[in-house]
UniProtKB/TrEMBL annotation:
Annotated InterPro entries: Cro/C1-type_HTH, HTH_LacI, LacI/GalR-like_sensor, Lambda_DNA-bd_dom_sf, Peripla_BP_I
Record-given protein name: LacI family transcriptional regulator
Entry-linked SUPFAM superfamilies: lambda repressor-like DNA-binding domains (SSF47413), Periplasmic binding protein-like I (SSF53822)
Transcription regulation found in the keyword field: yes
Domain HTH lacI-type: 8-62
């Protein structure tokens, strides 16, 4: 415990973690390899004590690091081209504010947040792939690092969040299929891993879709050709009246179209498909498909603008939801 009247020091962190002060320094700087167990104890101590080196200096705009971090973990079920659209949007907007962007692609969780906050190398943070009950959220509150989330956890109190209204996107897809007179409809989602960790966007698409569809199948699906072929075949066998499919799995779209053709389905005639994803995913198949755009670059740009306003001490909305737009092709 730090003595009354003074801030937390590296020695306090070392004592809490049961290591030498030099070990804490090595963990925070990354200059030496430290065992995962020891590094974990250090990062937990940093988080518990709220350690921030140079906290006074960092409060001055003139002493900013000029870098913001984007926590963009490369997890199972995430589509890399879409993630890179988010990164591109963040970098482009950051440069307008003379900021650089540090991409954090390792799935480090709260320990990664604590490490970045303690290192004083960034001024703020953008958090992506937000889960409904995300363990990083409490760490954000505890650390006090200015931040913006692209996504909404269940408890967003005190946080700044931006996202597409994925619930409305799910509703729009179900409505589109119903308006085309489809009998049974289904949602083909991302891999099981995305649902298992209760990723916010996937949960909300499912909620919106089921709210409009009535009884319907929601089927997680890997994105490799063999798995997609098998999943579509099983869906059709289990639901003989299935004539409408919403696909929220960008890399699977082309494989879905091949599987439906193999099953004798004529997309746009006796079977309808709608996509949630980038325009190019829906445009590069034949026939081209209607789609709800995920505006990755716009979301990232908005997040950076909000973060810069927070760093400047200006007000930002707690919640920013972009309404989905369904494009008919």
């Amino acid at each position: 415990m730090a003595a009354p009247g003074r801030g937390v020091t590296i020695a306090d962190v070392a004592a809490r973690a049961g290591v030498a002060a030099s070990t804490v320094s090595y963990v925070l700087s990354g200059k030496r390899s430290i065992s995962p167990e020891t590094a974990g104890r250090v990062m937990q101590a940093v988080a518990d004590l709220g350690y921030h080196p140079h906290a006074g200096a960092r409060s001055l705009a003139s002493r900013r690091a000029g870098v913001i971090a984007m926590m963009l973990p490369l997890r199972d079920g995430m589509h890399l081209p879409v993630l890179m659209q988010f990164a591109s949007g963040a970098v482009t907007e950051a440069r307008r504010h003379d900021q650089d962007v540090l991409l954090m692609t390792a799935d480090e969780g709260p320990a990664g947040l604590a490490r970045v906050a303690a290192s004083a190398i960034v001024d703020g943070l953008i958090l992506m792939d937000v889960e409904v009950r995300d363990p990083r959220v409490e760490a954000l509150r505890r650390l006090g690092l200015p931040s913006v989330l692209i996504g909404f956890p269940a408890d967003a109190a005190g946080l700044t969040c931006v996202d597409l209204d994925f619930t409305a996107a799910g509703r729009a897809c179900a409505d589109y299929l119903r308006e085309r007179g489809c009998g049974d409809i289904a949602l083909l989602g991302a891999s099981e891993a995305v649902y298992a960790r209760r990723t916010g966007f996937a949960e909300r698409v499912r909620e919106g879709f089921l709210a409009r569809s009535g009884p319907a199948t929601v089927q997680p699906c890997p994105d490799d050709p063999v798995s997609v072929q098998r999943t579509v075949k099983e869906l059709l066998a289990a639901n003989p009246d299935l004539t409408g499919l919403a696909v929220h799995n960008e890399p699977a779209v082309g494989h879905v179209m091949h599987a439906l053709a193999d099953a004798g389905k004529r997309v746009g005639e006796d079977f309808h498909v709608v996509v949630i994803g980038p325009d190019e995913v829906a445009e590069r198949v034949h026939p081209q498909l209607p789609s709800v755009l995920v505006p990755a670059e716009t979301l990232a740009e908005t997040a950076v603008r909000h973060l810069m306003r927070k760093l400047d001490g200006l007000d930002v909305p707690d919640s920013t939801l972009i309404e989905p737009q369904l494009t008919i092709r």
